Fold:
Amino acid sequence: METLSTNPINNVPQINKTGKHSVSKKLWKSRYMYAFVLPGTIFFILYRYIPLLGSVIAFQNYSPFQGFIHSQWVGFSNFQRIFASADVVQVIINTLTLSLLQIAFAFPVPIILALMLNEVRNDFFKKFIQSIVYLPHFLSWVIVASIITIFLRSDGLVNIFLHDMFGTNPIQFLQIPALFKPIVVLELIWKESGWGTIIFLAALAGVNPELYEAALVDGANRWRRIWHITLPAIRSTFVILLILRLGNVLDNGFEQIFLMLNPYVNDVGNVLDTYVYYKGIQQSDFSFATAVGLFKSVVGLILVLGANQLAKRFGEEGIY
Structure:
């Protein structure tokens, strides 16, 4: 940045270029730090920002043979189809229902698990339990879906156990529509809850131990210490993660749902992610699939902004 200085002899303003040189020196001094950031920056530019230009086909009757420039411009007609189609409305209901179940039942589990681990005083036992609950996160959804199928199929372990204990006939768990959403939520809890405790355990590690000692001297039992010290320590972390989760309320994860779908549960299990795949890839309706995806993004942005403002009104910092 150039600044003006006055010549003491003839009072003529002169340009001082030390600001520009200082910025260059700072950039050069931190060159290794920027080198570490560079691969991530390039990744987001290539795979996140440049593909956004392709969103223009949501406003076109896109044809791969005509390209972006020559495809017919149709305005918001693809977005009007979202609410005019009964199938899309049902898919949105399925998506919201599953997301609310995940927030209500899967989201609090890492918090509860982190609180339990925080109360364990034996370091070896604590690390052993952490290793056990972390492991499912590293399994792909293909493996998880295969394990669930092996357990719940008609000749699976669950049906064998029920038959031996209660004499019941085989139950087709994976073909009962009412059981699809609970199974998906339980899968998510088993796979990701342990990994989700990392953030909350990191927040709990920053709590001053003297607070617990002072509360113990004042006669507070374990539940009182958790309620008045531990929970307030992770409240801001909880709020931030909840805001980010609300931004993905229309995103249930394609891979898990796709692997669990079958013709028997398609009416209750088909969500926006799988619907976009069927419309865009299998039926080649690229414009409509892009419009649905863009609709998801806009709704997610609105929810994040609204939840962030609401959190600030309640005295939390929010995400920005």
